UniProtKB/TrEMBL annotation:
ATP binds at K115. GO terms for cellular component: nucleus. SMART domains: S_TKc. The keyword ATP-binding applies. This is Protein kinase domain-containing protein. GO terms for molecular function: ATP binding; protein serine/threonine kinase activity. Keywords: ATP-binding, Kinase, Nucleotide-binding, Serine/threonine-protein kinase, Transferase. Residues 81-457 form the Protein kinase domain. GO terms for biological process: regulation of RNA splicing.
Amino acid sequence: MSTLEEESCTGFAYAVRRQLRSLREAAVEWRNNKEIDFSYSKCDPHPFPHPESDRLEHCYKYGEGKGKFLPVLLNQQLGNYTVKAKLGHGNFASVWQAEPTTGVSSHGHESVAVKVCTNSKKDSKDDVAEAKILLKLGKRSDGKGDFGKDHIIKVDEYFHVPGHFGDHFCIVSEAIGPSLDYYFNLVQKQGLGAFDYGVAKKVTFQLLSATAWLHKAGYAHGDIHPHNILMKEQGFQAGRNEKRYLEPKNTKAKDLKYMPPYLVSCIDGDDLGVRAPLTFENCDARLADFGQTFKKSHPRRLYKMTTPKGNRSPEWVIKRLPITESIDVWAIACIAYRMTTGKHLMFVEERYTDANGKYTQKRTKADINIDHMPMMVGLLGTPPSWLIKRWSSSGLPQLDWDSVRAEGTLHERIQQDRPASMSDAEAVLFEDFLRKAFAWDYRHRATAKDLVQHEWFQSILTKEDRAAMEAMLAHRDSKLKAAFKRGFKKLRFLSARIGALGAKKVEFPAEPFVVEKIPVPTIEVLRLD
Ligand SMILES: Nc1ncnc2c1ncn2[C@@H]1O[C@H](COP(=O)(O)OP(=O)(O)OP(=O)(O)O)[C@@H](O)[C@H]1O
C-alpha cells in the first residue's frame, strides 16, 4: 500500500485500484518476458558482418516464437501497399516506406510508412491500442485552433498480415522523415557539436506544444526520446536501401528457416552526411510511436523500459510512485539540453564494456539506477524530504545528504556547456526553464502548457504562434464540465480524508521552484505510520 502522502492527492479507492493494476502489469510483464526467446543477446556477433551492423535488426528478432518480426522484402505486397524502402526498426516493429497500389492512398498520400508490428499477443494488444488512440486523436479537435496538434503523427488506417507464428498488426501513417536521433548523429559526424541554437529552441517548442495538446486530450506519450521524434521532410525518400545478405555462420539453424534472405539497410546507417543539418526555417518535428501511451487518468506503475535511461524522471527510478504525464515534460527537457549544448545532461551507461571498450552485456536496472540518482541529485540539489524517505525504501544506497549542495550544479553545467550564441540573459532563462521542467516532485513539475509560455521561447514566436497560443489559453471548460470537475475533486479529497482517519500528520516543507499556476493539493501530508 502506498503512503497516504501520495493518496491524499489521488484518493484511497483509486490507490487500491492502482496497486491491483501494478500487480497485473507485473504479472503480464513477467509472462511476456518468458515468452521472448533471449537465446541470442544483442552482444552476440551480428549475423550480417558490416560496419553498420548495429543499425540492422539482429537475427533474434526473427524466427520461431512470440515478439518476432515479419520477414519483409523489397517490392513485397503488404495489404494495399508495395514496399519500397526501409525506414527503421525498433524493439516492437520494423517500419517500411511503401506506395499505395492505387497510386494515391485514400488519405491522399503517394508514399506512406507501414509499421509492421511483432507477433506477440501482448504486443499486438498495445499496437491496436496505439493505432486506435492515434486515429481517435486525428479526429479530435479542441475547437480552438488545435495548437500543437500538427506536431503529432497522423495515422491513416491499420490492417493485419499473416505470418509464420501469428498475425502481424500493421499501422499506416504518413512517411515523415528521419528521426531526431539521425540528426544528432549527423551533427556529431559533421563536427558541429550541437544543433543550431534557434533550431534547438524551435524543436523544443514544437514538442512541448504537441505534448500540451496531447495532455489536454487526456493522454500522456510515455516514451519521448529522439528515436520517436521524426523531422518532417518534403518529398521524403528513405536511404539507399542496400541489401545485406545473410552470412549464416553466426546464425542458429532453426532461426535461418524463418529469416529473410537479406536485411535492408535503413536511412540511419546509410545517409549520414548526405542531408544538410536542420535549419530554423525548415525544422518541423512530429511526435511518433505511441506504443507506451497511457491515459492521464490512469497513471502507470510499470512498463517495459525502452526509453533511454538517462531521460527517466525520479518517480520512474524510485519505484512505487505513479508515473504521470509529467514524465513527458522531463524527457523533453533532457532532449532540449542535448540539442542546445550537444551534451547529454545525464548519461548512464546501459551496457558493460570490456578492456577494449567493446560492449559486453546489459547492465541491470538496479545498477543503472544506482548511477542515475546521484547524478540527478548532483545536478538538481537536495530532493524533498518525502522523496529522500522513499529513496531508502527503494533499495538505493544512501547518499551523504549533508554534502549535497541545495541548488545542485545545474548552473555551472549550463555555463560550461552553453553554445557561444547563447547570451547571458538567455542562459538565465534556459536555466529557469530547465529547473521548472526538472522539479523533483511530479505534482509540482511545470506542465507542457506552462512551459510553452516560458520566456525562453519569446524570441522565436511568430505572430501566428502567439495568436494560436492565445486561443489555447482562452479555452474554458463549459459550465457543466467545470461543475463536474469541481465535484470530482471534492470527492477525491473526501475519500483521501476518510482513508487518513487516525493517521499521523507530518508536515513536509514547501517545494522550491513551484510553478504558481499548478494547483498543489496540500503541503500538509498525512502518513499512516
Ligand atoms: N511515419 C514514419 N516516417 C518515417 N520514419 C518512420 C515513421 N515511423 C517510424 N519511422 C522510423 O522507424 C523507426 C522505428 O519506429 P517506431 O519507433 O515506431 O518502432 P518501435 O518498435 O515502436 O520503437 P520502440 O523500440 O522505440 O518502441 C523510427 O525510429 C523511425 O526512424
